[in-house]
């Protein structure tokens, strides 16, 4: 399903991922449609701004409307009117970060209680992890649910995305070394169970388009654990790999480098939840092929837009009379048709279209950035393009 | 600026209103873009769904971003990326209904205080009307402002719509007969002042596209006052007429009939704030040419959609698995691409696109209804079309 094109000496490469719903030219930024909808933007503008695929969240769609309903609708792409390639994540991140208690856990860490103590204790209000799976409370109504590798595979088969991810355990940088080791063992065993269940379900649902399962490499900030995790997953037959978990920004390139060093070159690698320009350069340079992140959409809703100089806030009073586009060089629909003064007004007036127009701009900015990096790798001008972009851009 | 086409024996007619930004085939429903934006829908989908013109509110745009800013942007149409014909209302309705105290006034009526007592008293928290104009508090920040006929004309010239309205006083059905008479005298004098100021400003701003000023007929539920108001305005040189003020639904046809009976046939008539299907039939039948109403958009945001049977709520649990469009006969973008099950999910998940998709459907429904009435008048099949539509539709 993956063909490698040009390569950088650092391990970065271009390529093409083939899916039943079309090809993805990589590196590619995959916008997030958490609940089978990109917040405030319909599928057509997403296609027009160059999105090649969308990623939805298994956790959210399981809770609402229910993955059985999405299955009856023909999968999340058809449900939302998107006919291109699709991804779903496994829910592993969300059951621990949203499902209950992760924020609380981090707060408790600060007071000297380690994160694993709290998770291990299994207090009523927290998500609890055991060797079989994770029990958690819905962030919507507090109801109790349980995800296991098999449950996650069942949900993701119902959601019907072209690329799906193995169910993994999210740890934090504050978990102890011992906990990270135990967690990693568990994630490896879960990966095996996911593969088995995925094969079983694929046979059972053979009339539906084939789905490709990616294993997810955890291991936090530890080189030996990251390498061990990557080697462990490499020994299994995954169609591709996700790189997940707690990664401090300044170590991103290093950690990604350890992992891609161990992974096979002929399988695509997805860096989960990463989308800031400087991080995309780091990830791509070290061999990641696809990326997803809610950031372009989330910051747009709080009136912040990407420009070649960095993020700017349209709500500043200085925007009131700026009758010019966000970025005169931008080729997006918003910059072609609207001024900063108008967008400032929409945010002040709390109009829905403010979110729509700024999300279109931000998603286009990030999608185009990755497209240009891809072209630069193919043209042999990557180093120049990176120096030029990052020379002007302040994170 | 107005050419009459076919006519009904009841006074209804088809026609064409010519503006500097294009023609409007009448009768026509004009969707509302209160703050220079149709809530949750961009201009392109509005054009695609058949909207011929948009109407913005002088009161809202005066307060935010300020009509001077809209003027600098080239008028509200250009500001929001809409190149078709535009209307603005005068702010007369909003300064009394939103500006402060109108709700309160109505509440006090119920306790035996008449609305005019409260308005006349000029209590601090209320809008106060005097012969010169209206002083009111902003609903946004409580700041004090004053609208006069001259101020309203100045604002509407800055907003730059093709069709603008004279500044009038809104009364309620609970105002005393004596107050209605005094108010009507005032509205007539304000109409004269608006015309004078409009002519002065038009000469001063002669480089800009010509704007057409419509007088507004008030008179509440009283036949003699409505007729007197219409005759009074007819004696002045207005390009067209608005019909405004307090009208009980069951008397709509009767009241509109009194007014259009007095108005010249060669000028267009706009029925302000009316947009429910049954009211559109009544208004059109009695000679109204254009209509505006926030209703299609407002009810869409609360998950209610128009169908040939009446309004239905997509949030009902029965929608969860209805994998079919809102209305299989509807030709809108939403019905062509989305199911009730998906829209139900979007409302449950509080996704912005729920409002977008249902507003597109509702605006299309109402725009198309008026278009079909127009065709039926031209074809001589109006009575059949009305009987057929209202026979199935429950308000």
Structure notes:
Chain A has 395 residues and is of the alpha/beta class. Chain A starts with a strand and ends with a helix. Chain A is globular. Chain A has helices spanning 43-48, 58-63, 67-72, 76-80, 92-97, 102-110, 115-121, 149-159, 177-204, 223-234, 252-262, 277-285, 295-301, 333-337, 340-348, 352-379, 382-392; strands spanning 2-7, 13-19, 22-26, 28-31, 54-57, 86-89, 128-129, 134-137, 144-147, 163-165, 212-217, 240-243, 269-271, 290-293, 304-307, 310-313. Chain A has 2 domains: 12-293, Queuine tRNA-ribosyltransferase-like (TIM Barrel); 303-384, no CATH class. In chain A, strand 15 (304-307) and strand 16 (310-313) form a beta hairpin. Chain A has 17 helices and 16 strands. In chain A, the strands form 4 sheets. An 8-stranded parallel sheet of chain A has the order 4-14-13-12-11-10-6-5. Chain A has a 3-stranded antiparallel sheet with strand order 1-2-3. In chain A, helix 15 (340-348) packs across helix 16 (352-379). Residues 100-113 and 120-125 of chain A have low confidence and may be disordered. The A-B interface holds A 35-42, 60, 64-65, 69, 72-73, 79-81, 320-321, 323, 337-339, 341-342, 344-346, 348-349, 351-353, 355-357 and B 35-42, 60, 64-65, 69, 72-73, 79-81, 320-321, 323, 337-339, 341-342, 344-346, 348-349, 351-353, 355-357.
Mean pLDDT of chain A: 92
- At the fold tier of CATH, the topology name of the largest domain in chain A is TIM Barrel
CATH domain class name of the largest domain in chain A: Alpha Beta
User: What structural class do helix, strand and pairing data of chain A support?
Assistant: alpha/beta
Helix fraction of chain A, binned, reads 40-55%
Low-pLDDT regions of chain A: 100-113, 120-125
- SS elements, strand count of chain A: 16
Global geometry of chain A: globular
As an assembly, this protein is homodimer
- Which second-level CATH architecture of the largest domain in chain A applies? Alpha-Beta Barrel
CATH superfamily of the largest domain in chain A: Queuine tRNA-ribosyltransferase-like
- Main-sheet strand order of chain A equals 4-14-13-12-11-10-6-5
Main interface by residue count: A-B, 36 and 36 residues
Radius of gyration of chain A: 21 Å
What is the first-to-last residue Cα distance of chain A? 35 Å
Q: What can be said about the biggest beta sheet of chain A?
A: 8 strands, parallel
Number of separate structural domains of chain A = 2
- Total number of helical segments of chain A? 17
Strand content range of chain A: 15-25%
